[in-house]
Request: fold
Amino acid sequence: MRQLTPAIISIVLLGSSLALAGPEEAKAHFERGAEAYKEARYEEAIDGFSKAYAEDPKPILLYNIAQAYERLGDTSNALRAYRDFLREGPSDEDRRVIETRIRNLEKRLQARGLQQLSIFAEPVGA
Reply:
């Protein structure tokens, strides 16, 4: 499996040094999520990253959420978060890596006899 580019993985690794440009509350949620992720408390990490995203919607937070769901073994929610991240427009190299990861997760679902249906509305709420 290809490794993610440094730009995409830095969000989790940098922890509190990440410069979120949004509100202080978003930074606090991010830091809580990053700390929980490092300690393998993935449900708490998802909560922290999700709250940070709600306050300051940085697309890379969607990637973090996907990673935490994947670590939990929640393939369906990991796929949803990866697809949300792709819609936000990552770099071409990161896009290829995430698309490969999505295909691998879809294969896992298929091996269990499951499929995932995603419905997107644009504009949002339409």
